[in-house]
Amino acid sequence: MGEESFTLIERKIGDLVKVVADLKKEKEALTEALAHKEGEVKDLGRKLADMTRERNEVRDRVEKILSRLDSIEL
Questions:
Q1: How confident is the model at residue 1 (pLDDT cuts 50, 70, 90)?
Q2: Cα(60)–Cα(55) distance, rounded to whole angstroms?
Q3: What H or E segment, with its residue span, contains residue 21?
Q4: Is pLDDT above 80 for 73?
Q5: Rounded CA separation 25/11 (Å)
Q6: DSSP per residue over 23-47, as a string?
């Protein structure tokens, strides 16, 4: 193998090292973004549960009011 072959191999290894480093950075960024989105999903799930509970309470109250109105004889 000549000097040119070693230079080519060194360059290709250098390129591979850069690709791996770039991929690691991208993975870290994606992992962070995923964690952020998972937090958002959890927060939205709590909000949905709260709103569902509130809706059920309102519905129950309205049903009780309507039931009381139905019991009134006109």
A1: low
A2: 9
A3: helix 3-71
A4: no
A5: 21
A6: HHHHHHHHHHHHHHHHHHHHHHHHH
